[in-house]
Amino acid sequence: MLSTGNEGCNCINQTSVLASLQNRDCTTATGQPGVYLTLGGACVTYDYGSSACLQHDLLHDPKCQGDLSTVVIPPYCFQPFCYVDAKSCKKNSEEDISRSDYFNQYDVFYSYSTCNATDYFWEQYLESFATNVSLVGGISITATVPNDQYATLNKILPDGTILTPREREEAYFDDTIPFGGIYIDYMNSIVKLSKGDIQNVTYTHTSRGSLKRYPASSSYTGAVWDVHNELVDMAVGPIWVTGE
Question: Are 109 and 99 in contact (CB under 8 A)?
Answer without folding.
Answer: yes
